[in-house]
Design brief:
homodimer, alpha/beta, eight-stranded mixed β-sheet, elongated
Chain lengths: 922, 922
């Protein structure tokens, strides 16, 4: 850009263009572009963001030549407008606006009517013959300049306006007369003097300089910095400043002001959508003092202008290839375009607009795919609260799983199940949830917890089920004993109705009505295009046949994670699961004891043998009963698991299904409250004491780092054997019916190659026996999760044996950061607030740290097995940024909860399009 | 080696040499070497380990030419011995022995007298005129051949020997007559036939072939494989086979057999040390049937032989440059050397021998340093049980912290303290320990737990204190309620005496007497040499002034880890610590509430202000009392911590002291049992319910991954501020007295650069204020622990701000493996048994996995701060293998518990010597 700091626009031409957004800001670039397109833009000039950069790099000073340049462009503007800045006959008034490449609410906004003082005010009155208009413009200038440039609180000015309205007993500003406005101007000048110690600046050139200074200074005010941090806005040189001649929509009945979208932002319909006000200024539309008219009325009232706008709509859409959000002013019958930008829209509208524009030949399919924000799709996939309904928000937590849920408050899972069985809608409220609560969570409309983060148990399970869920609502104080919760002084009792907004994290009193959005045909069309462009396959995390069916309807290309233990909580099953778990250690210990005694007996001197024989017999006797019960439990669970797997395989005909063997620590399946322990003791014929002892034996200080994952399979071989048997038998049975199945058996939490080898050998041996027995050959594979840092670091060794990798980025994030996702709530708020973390690393993959391990894992894995299938099955598999990362590092697939499958499909397509070609968006 | 498979030895020359250990095995190489040195070795030949390699690589077959080669060498041996293999006049008898480069008890051992059958037996009788000797040799041959070569149980033969002794009513084998021996030979042959289905092999050449086969087959038997796994023996081609002419020490009063060390292996004294038996075979010495005579008696009885041995001692020590363990046989007045190898010795002897040999000019100082096994030093640093005492071992656990402790059993820490205060010696027995037990652990002689691994709380703390400790003794069933424990049927009650051997992991009944070993002058000399050769500095982990003094005496060059919170458990302190912890969250929340209300008040409409003002006043009122108590607690702790730090700084004058700010989760400091909670409630004037609520609020599911480390410093700034104040004030105070101090303030558990920056800025600001106030300038630095995988991965970013790194490899191992060191006992035994892990990764650093992160961390850290000081302060800092690793990756120092400082000094020297030059040991 050399030393050119200023760019003019207006009058049918401009020095800049839309492509110079980084230097001219969004607003300046679009004003220039509209000028180039021949649209009527009030002329003006843009001071480049490079000046802002210079300003901060040079101790808040300007380039030497800037002041002269500004003068030059101001002169040119005076010539164009045939008016003079400060001229007492025909004064030029300007607006000054900030404008960076990214929209930034934290910065200085706008000063209008700059250039006014007592002398130019008089000239304005003479020129327009409208005294009230001129005084109104002046008081607006003073308050804006004072607030935005000098930092005086807006309240002080509004206070005076209120006072005078009270005094003269009117309700609206518009009812104030010229005299009242003159009085206000005096008061405003007093406020200015009181707060700055100086008189109001009269010299328009100094007014302008001060306003420019203020814009540049606002770039680095704390709010702006915070905003950039929050929205991860990086690499911008600074903000530009736009100085533009004023036009007025409040100069009589041939004047007006309006805003409109070139298409309907709510439905996507291809028709102007917006509103206007005759004889008004822009801020009046926003302030809502008078009710604006629909833009369609403009066709009747000012048909020429309306057609002009229609023409500009076509020009702008053709140029920007997108729906536009425009602002305009009509000054005494002449239309001025003040702003254009890509318009915000609902997901539904985005779909329709993108598909329509492809059909209209405005954009191609790739561009259409790039136009849809994947996060926004969420809106289309869950019911939402009626936007018109009244809401009383009593608490806010983390938006763990989207959706809109209403129901009666219950405090335990069992009651949730009971009421749901009676067709009651319930909201399950817990301090936190555990696997025992899963059935109740499934039965509930929504789940509310006061602890836990975005990947706490409640959040993960709810997301998997598609249940609405709000977690970590720390203001909610749950009292199980009295069956109520208090929140900010309010008491909510069992049976009271509440509503949860899972997308906003809001907890509301009572029953808020919901509406069901429908997936339009455009959705299917667009997703079809997305599938054309993506390389990354999309699978789903599904633990039940129902989820599998649902996910397949959403387009899942297989199951990336089926948690075999999630089926353990079904009716009647949990008792056998508990029996198996309680007896496993005892059976194992007795087996070891028997082996040891047998060996001892062999080598013992003769005189010791009788004694040892007696002991061996006793131990063998003691072994019988627990072993029988243990074996019985395994035998009961086998057909149940096999049946589930058969259904899942059928639902996923022709597609791969990754089944993870038992992963969580066993204690998660046992009851920890005395009441449930008593019940269990009764059911199993044990004493309460022995149940308690068995439960406490499995307690761990840090279960997340404890006896879980493949460590269970190594110590309790029978349990993994039972699961493998269920998988292979199910696969054989289904295949016999002519349904093609591709089971992928996944061993969790591997950190040592020998762990994998040992378990893989067990699996292969067992599978061979079963398949030989059934006379069926199932093409299955055995792979592992990469979820420990060590696994990623030695992935080359593991890949020698493992046929696939699935990155378990939940655990990988826990270990890499040393963050327990269940305990993160203790410090995460501080971390976010202090800017130490930008977001919860369990939501969006930490590409800097955890990502290094993922990259190492992929690279090393492929180094010893080039065709290894690699995917991700952590919560991150449904997060757009993380999906992009997975595409970039060359994974084969991502796996996510059913409801996020479309989001992943779209993101995968976008990542591939963006990765292979430079986007042609403006 | 081309196609040469066999190497002869004996007769003053050999085809092999000591340097060919890998091919000839230790035994074969040394026999060759002794031959070359002119020592009288019974001649023979060695079949190279290359043949073993060939054997396994070619489906258990031999190279085509081998059979012919064996024949050739056998012929040569016959010529040398002037006897014939199978000759019925003058038969040659041989021994066949396995022998790999590493000693391997799992392999085949020895077959003696091979070549005997009915015909050669007769010849032997004729030749020696000693019928009983010949029959005895024959029956020994049959049982050895049957057992070692044919795999028939040894029991079966011993059973027959017992039978005959019972029958003829004698006690010892030597009392059996020729007739009895003949009878035995018949029985032995029957056993052979019954078990093999064939007659005993008579053909000496087939006997030899079978024996050779057996040696090679034994290389890969399960015991041998297991042994190699266990002792990490890798890269050997296989075992060699030694075939050697028999000599007999049992041919009359001019014959003898003996073993001796060239120096005293117990004290290191430079004099022959060993024993011999006149008219006996080697196995008689081992069997202990007759009491052997001291080697010094040989000087009187066979002076010529004795002097010959003395001469050979010098030759061998000069050649091997080390103390030798030799075996010899005297056959009718002629000395034969059967074996030489480097002798095992005690740590004390190793020291003396190394120092003596340097003084004698046999070795240089570097070699002396390489001669001492650092692990062995441990023996010198702790009292040990009297080796002569009688021991009743009732259980075995993990040898967590060396030492010999005896005392009365107590089951809680408080009682341990009380009894210790009355000068009673106690052993604290717990299921596991927690920080509440620290004072009791300190008061006890030793600690026994039934749970936990080598780096459980008990183990780490005990090692740090130098307290004897056995952990994970899983047979011990502790019953707190009845104040007793049961172990394998025995009951041990409170007050009973037990003894713990912390080096062996043994638990013994009663009071086993101990002896205090003294550090000899040689120790100091050798450690001085070690210090000359090492590059790695050695610091200590010390939390108290006492430990600091002790460690400095052991040669520590500073403190690498002072856990500032370990002082929290002192008398009177814990109450204030608890007060601080319980109130911190409340004070913080109220502060946030006050700030929020103040902001709300500012922006509120007028009509709402009175209500908000009232609320603000109420919250401020509620804030007063907890804030006062909280501040009081901090103010009480400040001088206590400062006082401790002053003492530590004084003890470490002129040396750096790394102080780690508060690290463990706060709940560790709170009482979890109702009784203690009641006491606490009383002390703090709280209700039991509110204490319980406060404690449960701090409970976490996975505290290791929870709210701890720098996360505490970020959420509770006041606590870190108090600690920093104590450190800097102490440093200033001590410096004012003219004592030079170098505090290094260490921020734990950093995973995000912003965490470090925020806390570092706080520290610097506070330090400046304090130093300015005191008018003292202390040169301190601020660094961090690298203990999260993420920290290692982004070490370049962290090093931009951090002045030093200390690898916390305990936590790094936990996170990298996903292993909780407190819970590892659930699966570690299975992992070790199944060979998945070779050892507990918390004992010896996992160089393959965790090591990669350490290397990444060092490399990346130095990439942005080349002069960054890098050390290690995990438990691994005292483990020789891990210290070598630290040297190799270029760390500046290791830090370990005081008792391991000498071990680390020695290891560091060895690592540097071995890294910079090829060792010249044989």
């Amino acid at each position: 850009m050399g030393n050119k700091y200023i760019y003019s626009f207006g009058n049918g031409k401009a020095e800049g263009s839309a492509g110079m957004r980084a230097f001219l800001g969004g607003k300046g670039a679009n004003l220039a572009e509209m000028s180039n397109l021949g649209l009527p833009v009030p002329p003006g000039f843009t001071i480049s963001a490079d000046v802002c950069k210079y300003y901060y790099e040079n101790n808040q000073t300007y380039p030497a030549e800037l002041s002269e340049e500004v003068g030059k462009y101001l002169n040119r503007l005076e010539e164009t407008m045939r008016a003079g800045f400060g001229d007492t006959k025909n004064p030029l008034l300007v607006s000054v606006r900030s404008g960076a490449a990214a929209s930034m609410p934290g910065m200085m906004d706008t000063v209008l009517n700059l250039g006014l003082n007592q002398a130019t005010l008089r000239a304005l009155i003479n020129k327009t013959g409208n005294e009230r208009f001129a005084w109104d413009a002046y008081r607006r200038f003073i308050s804006m300049f004072s607030n935005v440039v000098m930092g005086i609180s807006r309240d002080k000015f509004e206070h005076e306006v209120e006072n005078i309205k009270k005094k003269v007993r009117v309700k609206n500003d518009t009812e104030l007369t010229t005299k009242h406005l003159q009085e206000l101007v005096e008061k405003f000048k007093d406020i200015y003097k009181k707060n700055t110690g100086e008189n109001l600046i009269d010299d328009p050139r100094i007014q302008l300089q001060k306003a420019i200074d203020a814009v540049f200074a606002s770039w680095n005010n704390p709010r702006a910095i915070k905003y950039r941090q929050l929205y991860n806005i990086k690499g911008l040189p600074g903000t530009a400043v736009n100085v533009q001649a004023m036009v007025f929509g409040n100069m009589g009945s041939h004047s007006a002001t309006g805003v409109c979208f070139t298409r309907n932002p709510s439905t996507g319909e291809n028709a102007l959508y917006g509103e206007f006000l005759i004889n008004a200024q822009g801020e009046d539309v926003v302030a809502g003092i008078r009710t604006p008219e629909s833009i369609s009325n403009l066709q009747k009232e000012m048909p020429r202008i309306y057609n002009e706008i229609l023409r500009y709509k076509d020009i702008l859409e053709k140029r920007y290839k997108d729906m536009q959000d425009i602002e305009f002013t009509i000054q005494e019958g002449k239309l001025y375009m003040l702003q254009t930008r890509n318009g915000k829209r609902t997901a539904e509208a985005a779909m329709k607009i993108a598909v329509d524009m492809v059909n209209e030949g405005l954009i191609d399919k790739k561009m259409a795919v790039l136009r849809i924000d994947p996060q926004q799709l969420d809106q289309l996939l869950h019911p939402i609260f009626d936007p018109k309904a009244k809401k009383v928000v009593i608490a806010t937590g983390l938006p763990a799983s989207p959706g809109a849920a209403t129901g009666k408050v219950v405090f335990n899972a069992e009651e949730a199940e009971n009421l749901a069985a009676k067709n009651e809608k319930v909201i399950l409220v817990r301090k936190e949830t555990s696997p025992e609560d899963v059935a109740g969570m499934h039965a509930a409309q929504g789940i509310l917890t006061c602890r836990g983060g975005m990947t706490s148990h409640a959040a993960v399970v709810a997301r998997g089920m598609g249940r609405c869920c709000v977690v970590g609502a720390s203001d909610v104080n749950v009292d199980y004993k009295s069956q109520r919760f208090s929140v900010n002084g309010k008491i909510v009792k069992r049976g009271d109705y509440i509503s949860l907004d899972g997308s906003m994290g809001e907890v509301m009193m009572g029953r808020v009505p919901t509406i069901e959005p429908k997936l339009s045909g455009d959705f299917a069309v667009l997703m079809g295009w997305a599938d054309e462009f993506r390389k990354l396959a999309v699978r789903t995390n599904a633990d039940t046949p129902e989820d599998a069916v649902k996910a397949r309807a959403f387009g899942a290309q297989g199951i990336g994670l089926c948690r075999t233990e999630h089926m353990f909580f079904g009716e009647h099953r949990i008792d056998f699961v508990r029996q198996m778990i309680l007896l496993a250690p005892e059976v194992k210990n007795l087996k070891i004891r028997i082996d040891a005694l047998q060996k001892e007996l062999e080598n013992a001197p003769k005189e010791k043998k009788p004694e040892l024989k007696k002991e061996l017999a006793e131990v063998k006797e003691a072994f019988k009963c627990p072993n029988m019960l243990y074996t019985k439990a395994l035998n009961k669970l086998l057909p149940m698991q096999r049946g589930d797997f058969e259904k899942i395989f059928k639902a996923m005909e022709n597609l791969p299904v990754t089944m993870r063997l038992l992963d969580p620590p066993l204690h998660e399946f046992l009851p920890h409250e005395e009441k449930s322990q008593k019940e269990m003791a009764k059911k199993m014929g044990m004493t309460l004491k022995s149940v308690k002892m068995a439960v406490s034996r499995l307690d761990e200080l840090n279960p997340m780092l404890g006896h879980r994952g493949c460590r269970l399979g190594i110590t309790y071989k029978d349990i993994y054997d039972m699961q493998v048997r269920a998988i292979i038998e199910a696969a054989c049975n289904v295949k016999k019916k002519g349904i093609e199945v591709y089971p992928e058996i996944m061993i969790p939490l591997v950190g040592i190659p020998a762990e994998f080898r040992l378990l893989r050998d067990n699996i292969n041996a067992l599978a061979k026996t079963i398949m030989d027995g059934k006379g069926v050959n199932v093409k299955y594979s055995v792979g592992t999760m990469i979820e420990l840092p060590r696994a990623a670091l030695i992935a080359d060794e593991i890949a020698k044996d493992a046929e696939f990798f699935s990155f378990g980025t939940n655990d990988l994030t826990q270990m890499t950061y040393g963050f327990s996702r269940d305990d993160i709530a203790g410090f995460l708020p501080d971390y976010i607030e202090k800017g130490i973390l930008e977001n919860d690393p369990f939501q969006s993959l930490d590409q800097t740290g955890v990502g290094q391990l993922v990259e190492i894992g992929v690279k090393k894995g492929r180094s010893t097995r080039p065709d290894i299938k690699i995917g991700i099955c952590g919560e991150h598999g449904g997060d757009p940024d993380s999906i992009e990362f997975c595409h970039r590092v060359g994974m084969n697939y991502v796996s996510c909860s059913p409801y996020r499958v479309p989001i992943a499909r779209l993101t995968a397509a976008r990542a591939n399009i963006q990765g292979t070609e430079t986007s042609s968006t403006v």
